User: Which sequence fits this backbone?
């Protein structure tokens, strides 16, 4: 009998996510070991259990998924998990706290359908603006776009926090071209925010649920944008005029995507990524690797 | 490959019930997501995971079971779960904390084999007495019988608590005919308790484990009762002369059922109900719906 | 459809062991109910769930595994689990906290390949020395060897703790021949420790990870030992000159086993034992029974 595909779900929240569990099952995980309230320390023996129970090619039938609503704790668990492996004694691992990495990847995959992000020389000519860029999804969208060569405006109500995010992304992506932008009332003449909107080829809104990030006036300024993506699923719309189900709908000069439109791409990336975990014992699927998975599906 | 049948077990106790888990597996759940210590608040994201991972007819392959030893918390979770659904974005859900709903349903199914409870016009002519009626099972037995039209004596050592239960049932079943009865020494001449015993066509004892609810003297008073049910599985018997394994055994003028006799009916209801959860995405199986399931098995 | 093989994993640590879970799945458990932070009290309703859900021969398809890093709590859970069963209403249960019982069994199985432990009359002529004998694995190795009739030196830095272990083993194995030995610098002339090393036919080192239990000088004293076993997997070696992967390697006059060499035997015992749990509903697999399982594999 072939060995069962086992996914160890390490979740930093007290209750392990049922969303991640169901997607994992639908992606082919045959057994699920769910752990809630996981910390870097408590992850170590769980990783040892993955490392020392199966040998040879059977090792690929065990994998680890790291989730939870706190991105920082989840990343710390991810780092500890990888530091616990040694040599070939390892299993594949995926990091997707609150779906932030698969969602950010899906947004970039959607944008790349209409903008030349796949070719670095062309991507360098693109400008993007990420609204709500200090949140978990926004940060990853900005990082992924910067990694493609796109010039990225990192917008937040707090210029200070926007700058901190730019520094963090700059540390991970040294060649990144980033600009911190404070979101202000767009009616203020000559604001950096207004200018950033006007110059953007791509705007991705990743603000809190139910928060308007780009109102009617702001939307009018976005005359150059060919793609507008709103990741907010809760009314009112984060970007004026975008509906949740929008998926490459023409709206003015732009093609627009809503939360459900991106969500269907996200689900494909999520499922495909989990199934890939079982193809080898050495994958490390963080945001960049998940984007690469998404690009193979496009 | 067809999608797996996933049951999300929301248990209010720290350790999710193994009883409920094993019955669910035997009823056809292919994957089980067990959660202990669930509260109304922590249930919400778990329900979202059920709602937003599968679409169309696949949604019926996910279902929710709510259990635990605290009926009130479990009911609060049940209410929150249903309030979290919207429109057709929902899954089937079953409420059976500590088996109270399936056990109460089984007791009524057993009684209905010998008393005309299925026909409202006849049921109105029946009188029942529920002993230990303020406990989780007793309350549900009283409510289910009242819903059938039976006149129900709600007995408790505390008349006050019996009255509170009558009010609660009356709120849920406006047409209910209920009488609060204080359990006293049956040798007291002319007590309301003695009268209630004498007039009852059906007596269901749902007291605490190992507690005598109807002693030899009390049993002698029950001259009119055609069915006596004792749900206590721990010696001494809750109703004098009933043995745990009794299942429609003739004892004096009555047919008697013990805890195991009712338990076998309960197990059939429990298993059938779980399997029905996966037939649609919109079932809500609380006590009344579980009784309806039991009636289809009779 | 045949009933699924369900293993209830009762783990005393907050996070249930993934090691035990994966081995159980590979041994044929089809469904796993994992419980962390289990205490004797919280185990009882979980055992009831195993007892009262399936009947007849189906009862053998449910089993209980008790693990965790604290041997004493795990043993208390094991005792409570067995006390909860009554008559034929029981399921098979295995006790293997932190793998101590399967590891100790594997060490004795390895030793018995080269020493006449299978025959009591011959075993009585053997002397063993267990280093780190107060730890969970060391205690069980000493107990299993004493049960075979071997004269066992129980060595610890603390003579007091060594004596306490001797008393505990003596209570479980009345015929045991045990000697408490304080581990000291072997260069001390005429120490009881030096004498115990010199006289031992078998030395098993079960000290803490990365702790040298028998250095070069000590190893030289072990002139009579035909088998040396080091259960420490973390450098430096617990016994000078033994490598983790050693499995019956000739080293001087002795055959030596390292942690991985014993580990492969342990895994076979562990898997076989779990699969046996489902063959009847009345097995109780503690250290002695697990050794018996190991002997059938030799």
Assistant:
């Amino acid at each position: 009998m072939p060995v069962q595909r086992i996914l160890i779900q390490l979740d930093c929240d007290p209750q392990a996510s049922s969303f991640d569990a169901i997607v994992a099952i639908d992606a082919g995980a045959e057994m699920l070991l769910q752990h809630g309230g996981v910390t870097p320390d408590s992850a170590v023996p769980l990783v040892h259990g993955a490392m020392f129970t199966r040998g040879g090619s059977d090792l690929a039938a065990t994998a680890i998924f790291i989730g939870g609503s706190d991105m920082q704790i989840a990343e710390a668990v991810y780092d500890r998990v990888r530091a616990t492996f040694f040599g070939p004694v390892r299993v594949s691992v995926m990091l997707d706290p609150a779906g932030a990495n698969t969602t950010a990847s899906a947004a970039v995959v959607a944008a790349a359908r209409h903008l030349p992000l796949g070719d670095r020389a062309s991507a360098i000519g693109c400008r993007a603006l990420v609204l709500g860029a200090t949140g978990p999804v926004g940060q990853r969208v900005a990082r992924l776009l910067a990694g493609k060569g796109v010039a990225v405006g990192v917008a937040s109500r707090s210029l200070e926090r926007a700058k901190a995010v730019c520094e963090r992304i700059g540390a991970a992506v040294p060649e990144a071209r980033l600009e911190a932008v404070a979101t202000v009332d767009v009616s203020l003449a000559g604001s950096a925010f207004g200018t950033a909107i006007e110059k953007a080829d791509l705007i991705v809104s990743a603000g809190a649920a139910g928060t308007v990030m780009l109102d009617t006036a702001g939307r009018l300024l976005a005359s150059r944008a060919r793609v507008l993506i709103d990741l907010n699923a809760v009314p009112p719309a984060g970007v004026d005029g975008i509906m949740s189900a929008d998926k490459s709908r023409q709206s003015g000069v732009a093609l627009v995507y809503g939360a459900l439109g991106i969500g269907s791409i996200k689900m494909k990336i999520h499922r495909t990524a989990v199934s890939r975990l079982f193809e080898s014992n050495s994958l490390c699927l963080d945001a960049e690797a998940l984007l690469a998975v998404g690009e193979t599906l496009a």
Notes: DSSP finds eleven helices and twelve strands in chain C. Chain C touches chain A at residues 13-23, 25-26, 32, 34, 263, 267 (CB under 8 Å). Chain C has a mean pLDDT of 96. Residues 231 and 259 of chain C are 4 Å apart (CA to CA).
